[in-house]
Amino acid sequence: MLQFSFWDILSNLLIATQWTIVLSLIAFFCGGIVGLVLLFMRTSRIAPLEWFTKIYIEFFQGTPLLMQLFLFFFGIALFGVEVSPWMAATLALTFWTSAFLTEIWRGCVEAIPKGQWEASSSLALSYIEQMRYVILPQASRIAVAPTVGFSVQVIKGTALASIIGFVELTKAGTMLNNATFRPFLVYSLVALIYFCLCFPLSWWAKKIEGRLNVAR
Amino acid sequence: MSYKLQFAELLPYWNVLLYGLVFTIVLTIVSTVVGIAVGTAGAAARTFGPGWLGRIVAVYVELIRNTPFIVQLFFIFFGLPALGLKLSETIAAFLAMVINLGAYSTEIIRAGIEAVPKGHIEAGLSLAMSKWEVLRHIVLNQAFRKIYPALSSQIIIVMLGSAVVSQISAEDLTYAANYVASRNFRNFEVYLLVALGYLLLAMLTRSLLRALGRVIFKAR
Fold first, then answer.
1. What percent of chain B stands above pLDDT 90?
2. A216: part of which helix (H) or strand (E)?
3. How far apart, in whole angstroms, are the C-alpha atoms of residue A76 and residue A83?
4. Contact call for B70 and A162, based on CB within 8 A
5. What is the interface pTM, i.e. ipTM, of the complex?
């Protein structure tokens, strides 16, 4: 029988960690792009666009991420397209991330004083120009801390992709546990690796937030 | 799309889904009550307790907040039996939920406690109130009023997160959905229905908590 030493377990987990990181990065960046588009729609003051984003956000914030993964996994298959766990996980995590980022960023946009909107519109800037040159440069300053904080949620969210069969850190942990029957060791290591990924980000987010409070 | 959605196929399983829904609701309510109790104790320990206790609580909070819920669940359900502590899937689900919400609410409640002006505590002590009376009537009273909205959204997040307990076969709403899907292979229909069920539950919880907040924190 094949024997797994401590180092075998750890190195296998670290290989799988790469996929957790890749999936997190893709979900975060694609989610950020979709979120930015939604942010423009949400603050556009055009009723149908606002309604669409409201329903979108309500759905993705009001249902479990696990359900969204299942829906993408089985839903796309209905169109006769072969769905890999990789594709379903990327899509579900992207949309889920975008919904939360839109809400976070909307809060930051609304924190900008109304006078900024009025001043820029009296200078004959269009809505897009107002956002691009006046509002977003100011809003992005206060948006950094909560956005970094949310990236921790994205990393933790990727753990659920293991359930639809995407092999990342959690799935690798389950597989190693099945092979070695050492659940305490394996899951401790899995938790420790997640902690090493997430804690620096949490700490960083807290630090930026503190710096902003001093400035005020 | 040549496939036709067939929701009628779900009808024979209404009792399975209803059982799952009730399980999810009970799981949420119990873990909310116990979790907030844990969080209150943790926050009080961090702000008023001795230094060593505060540090232990801080480690607990950071460990839980920086690892995924599913890993915590697997650790409790699969990992702890290796140390001789064997739990049923239901107990493990409840325990994991309480530990998770306990950590988050510790941090939320601590923020509320720290927002209470120091003068209020000193005023209470100078009126010969005991430490406990000050904590109960002055500090926590004001802290909870301030952090109630944050705590409410955390409760909803935890309720949605509870879908994961189906993975250790605790019989919640998601477990019921998986069960039905494995029987009639109408995966998409059942997951869509259950997702809408969660959505409704989340919206209902939010308005219930808002109403409850109005009753508890009636303007004095």
1. 75
2. none
3. 7
4. yes
5. 0.90
